[in-house]
Amino acid sequence: APVAGETARYYKQLSRMSKGLALCADVSMLMLGGDLKRKEMISARLGDVLSHLYLASATLKHYEDQGRMVSDLPFVQYAVERNLYLIGKAFEGFFQNFPNKVVGAVLKRVVFPFGVGYKMPADDRCHAICLAMMKPGEFRDRLTALCYVGKDEADPVGLMERAFLAMVAVQPYEKKLVQAQKEGKLPRKLALPELVAAALSQSILSKDEADKLLAADALRYEAIQVDNFAPGELEGLSQQNPVVHAA
To answer: Are 76 and 67 in contact (CB under 8 A)?
Structure first.
């Protein structure tokens, strides 16, 4: 591997799979010749291997170009492990369906002497990725750097972003409410405004915390609203706009 650390093993595995692809492609051309073009599912599986090798290599290069940031590592691990798993599945299909069964079995033994050991990423990798994307911070800012977020209050993306930040900010206050409900200090089945009012009356929340919680909930509610039209309104719009009418 050209690097050390957590990603070194990925470079080794991709190099091994690259050699395996070269061997299988050469043997396929030798055994099948022009028929390889007509054996579309066989050649497609080799193409799948190449595609996932490319994607995994691009992931590792991006990770290096970005300075090997620790916050990116769960994403790199998920992407490359998934690519390796799909490479293994494509090779399995290639060996199983190779026209010459003896050659297919020999190729499988050469490329995977101990069997295909690749697995899909574990659930904890998925959890780490989801948690990273659900928190404001440097990683999320780099991920959304090219996204347009309007400053106008009516901008849909800007509204969702403000609602997201507000909901994250009031999570500690929500935990206070949940804890109070567990302790029996607050009833469980109440709408948020009534629940906040009850918490405020018992000094579970301060006035500032209650105001922020209600404001965040109002933003959340506004962000999830969808367009609605009165009966017949869309028909009138389609008659005014030929493009809409044609659609």
So the answer is: no
